[in-house]
Write a structure and sequence with these properties.
Blueprint lengths: L4 H11 L20 H13 L8 E2 L1 H8 L3 H13 L3 E4 L3 E4 L4 H25 L2 H19 L9 H17 L3 H24 L3 H15 L5 H11 L6 H7 L11
Helix pairs in contact: 1-7, 2-4, 3-4, 5-7, 5-8, 5-10, 6-7, 6-9, 9-10
Length: 258
């Protein structure tokens, strides 16, 4: 069964170990060599986490050496990453991490907002008072854990997992997990933007406050307040786009955003 991004993130936060443990084993034997799938997943994860910066050249030969695998394995991983929109391969020039397209990400955020607003609407339609209260209690527990990261300047893996879990708890409560799996591949582009956005604007305290607002609005009698709060929470591009492009012009395909 395919593991989605949230589950991978949660597992890594719990174990504090990544697939990358297999990397860097130059000259590794066949017995410990990472699989083609793990190499692909590890490179993808590093792109999403901005360990490979947008626009950065990544070398097929260097990757093969670092992972202790053949160039064929790396070439296959690059082909999959290109198909997913995370790298661009140029004949005789090399492979480059794709820059972020803010207009495309804005469209994805609009799609995710529509989905999560519908999730909130379903909470009010499908869950009785007891089940809604149980959900609220689980969200409260999640927020208590988030508060421990309020003074964090980075988007730490453990906090990132809690951030994703907050949304997942609502999705799970109405049985819509498969819907998010359908969107998972495209949502990875949002995940990369999130890794930039949260650190660039030091948004962890703001995220916690926004989650608190969503939770408080879920305690109201109608869904419209929480729907408004979730939309405001997910709309992250407009207020920082110009500053982001000005500060990191090589990270984006956009020269302006409106």
């Amino acid at each position: 069964m395919k593991t989605n991004y949230f589950n991978r993130l949660r597992e890594e936060a719990e174990t504090e170990e990544g697939i990358s443990d297999a990397a860097g084993r130059e000259g590794a034997s066949d017995a410990v060599r990472p699989s083609s799938e793990s190499v692909y997943s590890d490179i993808l994860e590093k792109i999403i986490k901005l360990q490979y910066a947008p626009g950065e050249m990544i070398s097929e030969n260097q990757m093969a050496k670092e992972y202790g695998v053949s160039r064929t394995v790396i070439r296959s991983a690059f082909a999959r990453l290109e198909e997913a929109g995370f790298v661009e391969v140029y004949a005789k020039k090399g492979t480059y991490v794709s820059r972020m397209n803010l207009h495309y990400i804005a469209d994805l955020l609009m799609l995710r907002t529509a989905v999560e607003k519908e999730i909130i609407s379903e909470l009010y339609q499908k869950l009785d008072q007891k089940k809604r209260q149980e959900l609220i209690e689980r969200l409260e527990e999640n927020l208590e854990k988030q508060e421990k990261f309020r003074n964090s300047s980075g988007y730490l893996k453990a906090y990132q997992a809690l951030d994703q879990e907050f949304h997942y708890l609502m999705i799970q409560s109405v049985g819509r997990e498969s819907l998010m799996q359908l969107l998972d591949q495209n949502m990875l582009h949002i995940a990369r933007w999130r890794n930039f956005d949260v650190v660039f604007d030091q948004r962890v305290p703001e995220l916690i406050d926004e989650h608190r607002r969503i939770l408080e609005d879920l305690k109201r009698d109608t869904s419209e307040y929480a729907e408004h709060s979730i939309a405001a929470h997910l709309e992250t591009i407009t207020k920082i786009a110009k500053r982001a492009i000005h500060s990191y012009p090589l990270y984006f395909t956009d020269t302006e955003f409106s």
